[in-house]
Amino acid sequence: MACTHKDVVFEANANGWVPSGSRTALSQHQEHPARLPAVGLGHGHKPSGGYVLASDRDDEKDGLCQAITPGVLKRGVTYRVAGWISVAAAEEEVGNHQIGHPVRVSIRLGDGACAVVDGGAVWAEPGRWAEIKGAFRLRESPRSAAAVHVHGAPAGVDVKVMDLGIIAADRKARFSYLKDKTDKVRKRDVVVKLRGAPGASVRVVQLDNGFPLGSCINGEVIQNPAFVDFFTNHLDWAVFENELKWYWTEAQRGQLNYGDADRLLDFCDRAGKPVRGHCIFWAVDGDVQQWIKDIGGDRDQLMGVVQDRIRGLLGRYAGRFPHYDVNNEMLHGRFFRDRLGDDVAALMFREAAQLDPGAALFVNDYNVECANDPNATPDKYVDLVRSLQRGGAQVGGIGLQGHVSNPVGEVICDALDKLAATDLPVWITELDVGEPDVALRADDLEVVLREAYAHPAVQGVVLWGFMQGHMWRQDAALVNADGTVNDAGQRFIELRREWTSNARGRLDSDGQFMFRGFHGTYVAQVTTPTGTKMLKAFTVEKGEAALVLDMDT
Question: Which InterPro entries does the record cross-reference, listed alphabetically (predicted)?
Answer without folding.
Answer: Galactose-bd-like_sf (IPR008979), GH (IPR017853), GH10 (IPR044846), GH10_dom (IPR001000)
